[in-house]
Design goal:
The complex is a heterodimer of chains A (786) and B (129).
Chain A: H1 3-28, H2 35-55, H3 58-75, H4 83-105, H5 113-136, H6 142-154, H7 158-177, E1 193-199, H8 210-220, E2 222-229, E3 247-253, H9 258-264, E4 272-277, H10 283-292, H11 297-306, H12 312-335, H13 344-362, H14 383-393, H15 399-426, H16 429-452, E5 454-456, H17 458-474, E6 479-484, E7 489-491, H18 492-513, H19 517-522, E8 529-538, E9 541-548, H20 555-564, H21 576-581, H22 604-613, E10 617-623, E11 627-635, E12 640-648, E13 651-656, E14 660-665, H23 668-673, E15 679-682, E16 685-691, H24 692-695, E17 710-716, E18 719-725, E19 727-735, E20 749-754, E21 760-764, H25 766-785
Parallel strand pairs in A: 6-8, 13-21, 16-18
Antiparallel strand pairs in A: 1-3, 1-4, 2-3, 5-7, 8-9, 9-11, 10-11, 12-13, 12-19, 14-17, 15-16, 17-18, 20-21
Helix pairs in contact in A: 1-2, 1-4, 1-17, 2-3, 2-7, 3-4, 3-5, 3-6, 4-5, 10-12, 15-16, 17-18, 18-22
Chain B: E1 2-8, E2 11-20, H1 25-38, E3 41-52, H2 54-69, E4 73-77, H3 81-90, H4 92-96, H5 104-109, E5 119-120, E6 127-128
Helix pairs in contact in B: 1-2
Classes of the chains: A alpha+beta (786), B alpha/beta (129).
């Protein structure tokens, strides 16, 4: 196994863990005694420490070790958190993240002095906290504080000491978990690790061979004995040679810790039953393993005795525990009194249990031995363990590979359009039929591959919780973030690029939008302000709204500022919308004073530019005293769209199909009703329109057959307009190719595509065209009035 | 994977050549099913097996078990070093129960620390003999 790959796993997992730690910290502010969140924070710190130790990243281990000791105190209720400490812990989170990122670049990085100072300051604070709690709980647990000091003094041996701490903790936790079985927690005599590995049937089909993992074990220790379990191998005639029927019981000698050994099987976890017992593990652990193993109790015990993992006396002790365990489980379910000791060990077990349950069903050759699987209370499946289960359902792919796939699919779409055209020209019925089937498949492939790039926006939204949290601290306002529609999916590239503009908008909302608590109270509003992030789909677009319930935009103020800075003429008549849109102009800020957060007049224009680069648009709605909503419209995807192919003059154009509402004949009736203006009466509604021939100033000298012209009614961001074209061709799979730099100032064109014939068709920038049509209509009206 | 067959009356000797792994098990399995139908004395020469993986090992186990149940005799011969490596790791020597001749080099290379005791492979009766 390649260490670089394992390191990448470490980085990705640590980032994930730290993210859930951050969420838990933020959630914790609502209730500092919430056990689930406390446990999630502790677990994240603990696991990051463990995996960092495996790589020998002592800087991370040293820091997290102290933090872990402190969290342990908090968890035990010896120290109470408050807002101030929450800030310290968030600082610790940031520090660990910074350290992890530092190690991402380099295995033995120099910690920059600045970062080191920060870390030392945090450590000092935390050590104070530990001391404070130790003082309050007298001599109790002074050992933990001692080990902290040892750890800091020794430094290099921290990995070993953290391992000790882990083990110590495991036994402690074991004791608290099953108080009534205390007399049986006698450690077994076996001085080696015991690993029980039963791959699932389809492990080979997933391209995995247990052999490589077992081979790797030999690199971190020594296999003392391995028994291959062949009980489930069927007769050769029933054998599915590509299914796996084998199991492995392994007695293993190693100095490494639990995490390191478990990590060996990282890539196999989804596809196997795995149970790892540490040297001298408690009998209770073996009880759990036996109860959940796919192998029958008798066979497993027989094997374990044969391997000298368990002695005859230990087996007898096991049988008595089993009896008690049964009773206990029913007790637990009935009374709910057992303290919830959700901790690293029990969640690990919990995680193992779920795949086992599935496995149990699958292995039907297995005879039920009568005893029930110990029932864990559902509360034990905390957010964090659920999170990890979700993570295991996904595979990580290099984004570049995806991009290559999308590119190739794009080429495939173009080529298949070409094939289809050739087939139709050939008049060969069978060929036409075959190509039409192929076309449908290509469309499916296109949809599926585009879908792979789709990610839920919720992840990005949740990142802003921290932003809002910090802002509300910084400005001593009470602000909460409300997230709606987090499950809305959009293209990964779009998500990445929209993150910065959203931060700008949130900062703006927090700084200018929401008033201080006093002012809000005076106005009869609730003291706490809300910023709402909302995402939803709308005609093939995605809409993201950032709204606040603050004071709203001040129209007069904006107008005055605009006139002062020469953006607008003094007597220019502007609609409400136009006034609001002024804030997107570069260098425009109405904030009276410049704060750290915003008010420098950069920001909104950056938002606008970013969104436009994604072929999207921004608009603002605001009501004075009630709040402001900034609405961002974005296309769902950037690479391939369903298009609508039309002809104007000799050239072909493509409109995004999602924006096309309907097509109507440009009848003589419409022509008459034009009344000279650029609008028609569409079922009683005024519809501004744009004659593309005029708009693009096409002078091909051809006589236009006016009777065959059509109007395409397009819709974008709640505005409609008609576009006059010469001929309609219908739907067309469009692979968007960007236009070169020289075309960057082209109005009304957003890209190009290649037709089946190899010709180039331009993609119309419908939002801009609608804007132009509306503008033309206004100018006409103004001219009439004038 | 190539299979050469030497046949004498009810005896068959199969020479396996190439990779005995997930890519070839399906093909070999079908051949072995045929062999089991027609012969009661089967020997398999593994000296030219240059790769053995878990799927291949599993097939050998299934073959041994099926032969036992049909009252046939099945022996594996001339274990190549790739075969020995896996048998040593998986404790497969006792499971398959064949005599193995080791060269001095092989004695040095593989430890065979465990899994050497002969076992009864018949389904449902797995135990140490």
């Amino acid at each position: 196994m390649n260490m670089e790959a394992v390191k990448q796993t470490f980085l990705v997992e640590s980032r994930g863990l730290l993210e859930s730690m951050e969420h838990a910290l933020l959630d914790l502010e609502k209730d500092y005694k919430d056990e689930e969140n406390l446990n999630a924070i502790f677990r994240a710190a603990h696991t990051v420490k463990g995996s960092a130790g495996m790589f020998g990243y002592s800087a991370i281990v040293e820091f997290t070790h102290v933090l872990e000791n402190f969290l342990e105190k908090v968890r035990k209720g010896e120290f109470e958190l408050n807002d101030e400490w929450s800030g310290v812990l968030l600082g610790c989170h940031d520090h660990i993240l910074a350290l992890v990122e530092l190690h991402a670049e380099n295995d033995n990085p120099e910690v920059p002095a600045e970062l080191k100072e920060k870390g030392d300051a945090l450590l000092e604070k935390i050590n104070d906290g530990i001391k404070a709690s130790s003082a309050s709980s007298a001599s109790e647990n002074s050992g933990a504080a001692d080990s902290t000091n040892d750890n800091r003094a020794e430094g290099s041996s921290s990995v070993a000491s953290s391992k000790e701490a882990t083990e110590k903790q495991e036994t402690e936790e074991q004791a608290t978990e099953t108080p009534s079985a205390k007399e049986h927690v006698d450690a077994v005599k076996n001085e080696y690790w015991h690993i029980s590995l039963h791959p699932r049937k389809d492990v080979f089909r997933h391209g995995l061979d247990p052999l490589s993992f077992i081979n790797y074990l030999e690199e971190i220790g020594s296999i003392k004995e391995l028994v291959t379990i062949v009980d489930f191998v069927p007769d050769i005639e029933e054998l599915e040679s590509e299914s796996s029927y084998l199991g492995f019981e392994i007695n293993f000698q190693s100095e490494k810790d639990y995490e390191t050994i478990e990590q060996v099987f990282d890539f196999l976890l989804d596809d196997c039953f795995l149970s790892i017992q540490s040297p001298h593990a408690s009998l209770q652990n073996y009880v759990d393993m036996i109860a959940t193993s796919p192998l029958s109790r008798e066979r497993l015990l027989e094997t374990l005795i044969g391997m000298n993992v368990l002695t005859q006396e230990e087996i007898e002790a096991l049988n008595t525990i089993k009896e008690e365990q049964k009773k206990e489980d029913t007790d637990m379910l009935e009374t709910d009194t057992v303290a919830l000791a959700t901790d690293t060990v029990s969640t690990q077990k919990q995680e193992q249990k779920e795949p086992q349950a599935i496995l149990k069903k699958e292995v039907n050759t297995l005879e039920k031995t009568g005893e029930s699987v110990p029932v864990k209370k559902p509360e034990n499946g905390t957010d964090a363990s659920r999170f990890q289960n979700i993570v295991q359902r996904y595979i990580r792919i290099d984004a570049n590979k995806l991009d290559t796939l999308i590119n190739q699919v794009g080429e495939l779409v173009i080529t298949s359009a070409n094939v289809r055209q050739l087939a139709e020209q050939s008049n060969n019925k069978n060929l036409v039929e075959a190509t039409s089937i192929m076309n449908r498949l290509v469309e499916d492939v296109r949809d599926i591959s585009m879908n792979i790039r789709m990610v839920q926006i919720g992840e990005t939204f949740r990142k802003f919780e921290r932003v809002v949290h910090d802002l509300s601290r910084e400005m001593s306002k009470k602000i909460h973030l409300r997230i709606l529609g987090g499950e809305t999916e959009l293209d990964k590239t779009v998500v990445e690029k929209i993150s910065d503009p959203l931060i700008h908008l949130i900062r703006n909302a927090a700084d200018h939008g929401i008033d201080s608590s006093e002012k809000r109270k005076a106005k009869g509003k609730p003291e706490e302000g809300f910023i709402t992030l909302n995402a939803y789909h709308d005609t093939g677009n995605i809409v993201i709204e950032v709204s606040d319930d603050g004071e709203g935009l001040n129209k007069e103020k904006i107008l005055k500022k605009a006139i002062d800075s020469g953006l607008v003429e003094e007597n220019q008549a502007l609609s409400e919308k136009e006034i609001f849109n002024l804030v997107f102009k570069a260098g425009f800020s109405t904030a009276d004073k410049i704060t750290n957060v915003s008010g420098r007049g950069v920001g909104m224009d950056v938002v606008m530019r970013n969104v436009e680069s994604l072929r999207g648009s921004v608009d603002i709605e605001s009501e004075e005293g009630k709040g402001t909503t900034v609405r961002i419209h974005l296309p769902l995807t950037l690479a391939i769209i369903d298009g609508f192919l039309v002809r104007v003059g000799k050239a072909a154009y493509v409109l995004p199909l999602d924006m096309v509402l309907e097509c109507i004949d440009m009848s003589s009736e419409h022509r008459i009703r034009r009344e000279g203006g650029n609008f028609i009466n569409l079922r009683g509604e005024v519809l501004p329109f744009l004659d593309l021939r005029n708009f693009f100033k096409l002078e091909d000298g051809e006589d236009v057959d006016e009777s065959s012209q059509s109007i395409i009614v397009v819709n974008y961001a709640k505005q409609k307009a008609g576009l006059v074209v010469d001929e309609l061709f219908g739907e067309f799979q469009t692979v968007i190719k960007p236009l070169g730099k020289i075309f960057s100032n082209l109005q009304g064109i957003s890209g190009a595509t290649i037709l089946g014939t190899g010709e180039v068709a331009l993609i119309l920038d419908v939002p801009r065209l609608i804007g132009s049509a509306v503008q033309l209509r206004k100018e006409e009206q103004a001219a009439k009035k004038g | 994977m190539e299979i050469k067959k030497d046949i004498k009356e009810d005896k068959i000797l199969l020479h396996l050549q190439g990779e005995l792994n997930i890519y070839s098990v399906s093909y070999l399995k079908n051949e072995l099913i045929d062999v089991l139908k027609n012969y009661t004395k089967i020997a398999i020469d593994l000296s030219h097996v240059d790769e053995l993986d878990t799927a291949g090992f599993q097939l050998l186990i299934a073959l041994k078990r099926s032969a036992l149940e049909r009252g046939a005799v099945c022996k594996l011969l001339g274990h190549s070093s790739k075969v020995l490596r896996l048998l040593a790791l998986y404790g497969g020597v006792g499971l398959l129960g064949d005599k193995i001749r080791l060269t001095n080099d092989e004695m040095d290379n593989f430890s065979f620390r465990y899994g050497l005791k002969k076992q009864n492979l018949e389904a449902g009766k797995i135990s140490l003999i």
